[in-house]
Amino acid sequence: MNRETLNKIIRNRKTIYPTQFSDKEIPESVINEILENAIHAPTHRMTQPWFFKIYKGKSKDVLCEIIQKIDKEKYSAVKINKFIDKVKSSDTIISVCMTKDESNRVPEWEEIAAVSMAVQNMWLSCYVNDIGSYWSTPALKDDYAKHSGLNSNQKSLGFFFMGSYKHLETPKVREGLDSKVEWV
């Protein structure tokens, strides 16, 4: 690989929403490759805090059942139904989770940062495999954690929706480097 290829991948990666996904199935081998890349993210003290629950095929119904158990007084039916529609429009949903280091060797924010880097690896891997992806962190993720069997040392950090999508090379709008960098 050369730096132009890497720059292209980083600069063209973007969020693709479930309404843009095609019906083409993502092979399990590709999902495993994406997850393998995820677990190679940097992690302070090698805590490797990430873990993932995969919902694909019939198990998407399990995710919908968990979401339907969530307190309807806390979240509107509209929000819950929108979430379920995203599940149904996606080929695969990855529940992004974190296990806090029991020895508290690193601050929680570093564990969250490590998981975020794992998600970035997933995003880049999706891009090169013509898979659209979207990381959603809805408020209901905390209630999902309770209903999906996560323990008190674990957290849900949202959902990574995936579906086939032929990426188009379109530049993203970004502020210029001068507005974000100060050379000292």
Overview of this protein structure:
By secondary structure, the protein is α+β, with helices and mostly antiparallel strands. It has helices spanning about 5-10, 30-40, 60-70, 75-90, 110-130, 140-145, and strands at about 50-55, 90-100, 130-135, 155-165. The protein has a four-stranded antiparallel sheet, with helices on both faces. The model has no long low-confidence stretch (mean pLDDT about 95).
Primary descriptors:
184 residues; single chain; alpha+beta
Main sheet, how many strands, which sense, barrel? 4 strands, antiparallel
CATH homologous superfamily caption: NADH Oxidase
Termini separation comes to: 32 Å
Q: Work out the helix count.
A: 6
Looking at the structure, what is the overall shape?
Answer: globular
What is the CATH-assigned architecture? 3-Layer(aba) Sandwich
Residues in β-strands, percent? 15-25%
Determine the mean pLDDT.
Answer: 95
H/E element sequence: HHEHHEHEHE
In total, the number of domains comes to 1
Q: What would you report as the Rg, rounded to the nearest angstrom?
A: 17 Å
The CATH C-level name is: Alpha Beta
What level of helicity do the residues show?
Answer: 25-40%
Low-confidence blocks of residues: none
Question: What structural class do the secondary elements suggest?
Answer: alpha+beta
Strands, count? 4
Task: Set down the secondary structure blueprint.
Blueprint: H1 3-12, H2 28-38, E1 50-56, H3 59-68, H4 77-89, E2 92-99, H5 108-128, E3 131-136, H6 141-147, E4 154-164
Short overview:
By secondary structure, this protein is an alpha+beta fold. Helices cover 39% and strands 17% of the residues. It is globular and about 50 Å long.
